[in-house]
Design a protein that fits this description.
CATH topology of the largest domain: Immunoglobulin-like
Strand content: over 45%
Distance between the termini: 96 Å
CATH class of the largest domain: Mainly Beta
Largest sheet: 7 strands, mixed
Number of strands: 70
Oligomer: single chain
Structural class: mainly beta
Radius of gyration: 49 Å
Length: about 850
Amino acid sequence: MSALSCQNNQRGMSLVEVMVAVAVITIGAIAAIGSFRYISFSLQESKSRTLATNLAQEQVEKLKNLSYYMLLVTTSTANDSNFASIAYDNASYPSQTLTEGGITFTRGTRVDFAYQTGNTVSTTSWTSDDTGLKQITTYTIWKDATGWQYMELKNLRANPAANPLTATFTGTVRDNLTVAVSGALVQVLDNPSWYGYTNASGVYRFNVSQGSYTLQCSSQGYFNQTTPGLRPATSNSVTTVDFTLGRMSSGTVGGYVYINEHPVISQVVASSINASGFYQEYIELYNPTTSTWLIGSPTLDLLYKRQGSGVQTITLDYSTLSIAPSRYYLVANTTTITVAGVSRTADAVFQAGNANYPNVLQDSSDGSVRLVRVSDGATLDTLGWRSTALAPNYYESVPLSDSTGAGVGLDDNEQYVRLTHPGFITSGYGRAYDSNDNSKDFLPYSPISFAPYNSSTSASPRSGTPATGAYAYINDGLSSVARCTDVTAAGYRACYFSVTNVSTGTWKLVISSGGYYKEVDNIVVTPSVSTSVPHGSTSPNWTSVGNTSITLLDETTTYGFISGTVYNASSLVLSNIKIESAGKSVFTNGSGDYFLSALAGAVQVNANPNDTSMNRAYTTGSTSINLAVGEVRSNTDFYLSLGGTLRAYIRTASLTALPARVVVATLNGYQMAQATSDNSGYAYLANLSTGTYVLQPQVDSAETVSPSSVTVVLNSTGTAVTITTFTVTNGLAEITGRVLSSSSATLKTGVLVLASTTTLTGSSSTPAPSVYGATGASCNPCYYMNSSDASGNFSVYVRSSTTPYRLYGWYTTFSDQTPTTRRVGPYSVTATNGGAIYSQNLQW
């Protein structure tokens, strides 16, 4: 084997190979170095964008904490020098320069009115009406190694209540006779806060926001009318919608009315021989009232008189001392009366001392019996009868002249009996008919047919004295007040009322005369039907008076009643006008009439009072009267002039409507009206008479208003008079900044920041002053304080002032457990514009 065949085949790297390897390694290193550079750029850019986003979000949250109306729409802008497309607010929210993470940012803000179309949100000019939506846009601008960058962030602030009332509804309301209906209410059913009242010509007008709505018209005494479909209302246009109201179908309510206010003489007998041959004579009394009358002591006297003799008081021995309601009372010349087969015990007996005892009442002669109240001598009732030759001295209207017996007066075995109701004597009912005519109220009977009654007998009255002139009022709001007038019923005087044009429905009837009245409830009225009341379904019903439509005024009252008519300045009647007194109220009917009950005494009556039911086309009216118990004070009329209304518009400096702001109207230094602006920014000061008024908005002490007041001359027109717009400017400015250490590091532990127009005394170790009660509207000096947050940012709201603010900060550090607080400042900040933002950092 050859030696050469056993050698290893080995050799080294050539120079070329080494050069190639070095080149490859160098290229890789250079690539790695470039890669690290780009990673560093990427991290820095991510950091910058994160900080920019945080700053933008911080501003958005700060502005969204403001109320919708205090979020001011941008009215003046400045373009950024680096991005021509960016324009931010340079008035209300000026740009700020902020340093975060070693990067300097410029933060700009703008606020615009916005509206949504489908899924797209668009903005509109600040001069537009409030859309109910505002868009907040914040820009954060900074510069990095590649050039200028910006971050844009948007958010929305909504207020659904702030709809622009730029559309108008108007029209005329008439009844089915084409007569204008004043005081009618027209309102939007979709939003009842949008409404208007018709004026004297029947015309209404009010504003709504753009849309389609259902309108309803209503007025007292008329059926409501509603538009059959939606009526469109276009912005900046007027839509006319007329209404024709049908009067409510009406009926008539009527009935007879009697008043029972005193006992009456119900029967007289001068001579009747009993089985023992004794000549019996007696006087029967009846109490148709609801009160008990005392008759002993004496309280009531019986007087007897005939021609040629003096007046004789019939002195009595009493066994019964009172007459209960709906009871009889028997006065006789003997303890027991036996007549017509019935024996009755007398309640009082003629005393033996009577001059003609036992024959007080002379038979076959004229005569008269009077029932007299002792306390004042008033005659409550009288019965006088004549003989052939002589008439009695006392009687009511016409003395009774009988054709029975000998016809010479009250004969033996003859009786005079009072009627229970016109023309009739019906057993079981009280003998109470009293037309104040003896010839009509009594019937003579011979022989005696009706046995006497005593206090053990009770019978309900069926009539009484016709209540001539009594007022009858139905509370339907359409009918007129009726008066009870005399009529003839079967040849006898009665009193009948008839209330016409009563609305369909269920109502109450009130009848009043003097101090007596009666209420009848549950009266059902149907169209074109005359209803007699009371009847079987009313309360009270007619059961107690024999199923007859008779109302008895037997209840006393502490109230009086006021009636009248309301007219406009042209003496035309006004319907649907509220009349109120001491909490009781009614509305005038279609004829302008009203009937109101009120407690007796000094009474103030108000027409068209200033409340939610007020007809704002007219002024209020008021009168004071002294009302007696049971009195019906008629002709208490009112003449209302057209009421003037002042309309003020309240807005922000960016022309946004400002609701819930009070406006006061004064006349000669006295407040006459005040109103609060609605969601559309308008305040209506209504019911003002003519004159020169000063109007002044009432704003927060942190706000200013321009003009501060307006003087306006008002001529009453019935329509709203628009005056100068009031512009309210937010009086609070904002001072913002950062708190930094001496090395410009952010202080994150919380720093107390204070602003005041006063320079504080002391040194850097002096603690903060007490600010309790020093931030109100009248503070002097005023202090405004806040603390910085965990990011080292602070924000202090101050009232705008031409005097520069002094800004201080207190920062506390610890050495072990020992705290040390150091004060810095003052820094001078001029905050002259309300709503503006001013920047100032604090550094220790």
